[in-house]
Amino acid sequence: MSLQRGRAFADDDETQIDRSIFSDPVLYRQEIGRVFARSWLFLAHESQFHKPGDFHSTYMGTDPVIVVRQKDGSYKVLLNSCRHRGMRVCRYDSGNAKAFTCSYHGWAYATDGSLLSVPDETAAYGEGLDHSAWGLATAPRVETYKGLIFATWDPEIPPLVEYLGDFTYYLDVLVDPDEEGCSVATGVHRWRMQGNWKLAAEQFAGDMYHAASTHLSAFIAEAPHSKGIRPPERGFQAGVDGGHGLGGYAAYPYWQSQGFSPEVEDWMGAFWERAAQRLGRARTTDAVFIHGTCFPNLSLLFNRWHLRVWHPKGPDSMEVHSWSLLPNSAPPAVRRALLLDYQRHFSASGTWEQDDSEQWNYSTNSNDGFITAKLPLHYGMGAGRGPNKGFPEFPGTVDTVYSEINQRGFYRRWSELMAVPHPAEPTTGEAPVTGSAKAVIA
Ligand code: FES
Ligand SMILES: [Fe+2]
């Protein structure tokens, strides 16, 4: 077995994974630059913004950022770190601001990041402070896809729609199902959990195998209102270029097994018929999408109307930001039912959420042992199997439910990015990334 630093796979067939990618602090620092600073990162949904100065705080990799709506309706993404001593200039999750004034010494920045004023400037600096050189750093590229706001630190990256590629065929089912669009319900849930972020992202990309075991107690608890409706035998995992992946089943009326009222069930049936008119039947009424991940850290639960981001907080920790994204065409009673359904299952205290997070926590912990770290992990499910011909219209590579094709695609993309040092990294040794930020934000 050859453990090659920076490459996820421990074998030439790419069916085994080197466990150090879940625990090694040097690899962790490298992936913040090589993976996160070179990818399009999802930050917020446009429905969270209504007027100039509306903002939303989040992260790009480990960097705190503020997404701010500008007067012309565009968005700027500001690095949330004062140029004086680094204090966060905004300590709120969201709101509206005319300026961002640092609480430490009072430097104030406009909503486009430019330095507006400095207290006692003449006494402190004379004429020596060039405002144009000391504004907040801004992400060089910000683009949207059907309401989803993404940004990147990489000025050379392909346009967002190209980066998403064939994943848009699947993503549209969540974000563009009918002519009325969708919007974020209430706010954004944020919580921290133990575990390496990749275990969460890869599970959402391609793991339906875990459900029967991990969520058994939840299945049993929900049995009274499931009416015996189970997913069909036939399903799929679909992976597309760029490390993105998702999975689902052949069509079945999943909304009739959630304990919804007849009003909600009727609305759902009609909704999917409308979606079929807009998007075609193959991805609406002939299939049910369940889970997915847009590389690197945006994950989706299609059947729970849900988006989430896994923000890395060290090799063994992550911060989850979680949105309930509901169709605007849904009447209030339906929106409330869908919101409660999401919260019951996948909020911080949701039953399924707790099931999953327990697995990521203990897997991360045990992968970091002295002996366990030497043993590769099995990622070979479905390797060498022919394509699943049951979903002929689906783009990408399609396999059955019992496949780790998407996890392998995720780590293939991760390895490609990790193979090339980021220009802001130190040029020698394996010290943490502390190089000049100029290469990142230029
Ligand atoms: S750290 Fe912001 S003004 Fe000093
Ligand atoms: Fe799960």
What does this 3D model show about the protein?
There is one protein chain. This protein is α+β, with helices and mostly antiparallel strands. The protein folds into two domains: 41-142, Rieske Iron-sulfur Protein; 165-418, Naphthalene 1,2-dioxygenase Alpha Subunit, Chain A, domain 1. The chain has twelve helices and 21 strands. The strands form five sheets. Strands 12, 13, 14, 15, 16, 17, 18, 19 and 21 form a nine-stranded antiparallel beta sheet that branches. A four-stranded antiparallel beta sheet has the order 5-4-3-6, with no helix packed on it. Strand 7 and strand 8 (108-110) form a beta hairpin. Helix 5 crosses helix 11 (405-418). The chain is globular. The chain binds FE2/S2 (inorganic) cluster and fe (ii) ion (FE2). FE2/S2 (inorganic) cluster is lined by residues 82, 84-85, 87, 102, 104-107.
Overview features:
442 residues, binds fe (ii) ion, Rieske Iron-sulfur Protein, alpha+beta, Naphthalene 1,2-dioxygenase Alpha Subunit, Chain A, domain 1, binds FE2/S2 (inorganic) cluster, nine-stranded antiparallel beta sheet, four-stranded antiparallel beta sheet, globular, 2 domains
- Which ions, cofactors or small ligands are bound in this entry? FE2/S2 (inorganic) cluster, fe (ii) ion
Could you tell me the number of beta strands? 21
Give the count of structural domains.
Answer: 2
Radius of gyration: 23 Å
State the helicity in percent bands.
Answer: 25-40%
Q: How far from one another are the termini?
A: 41 Å
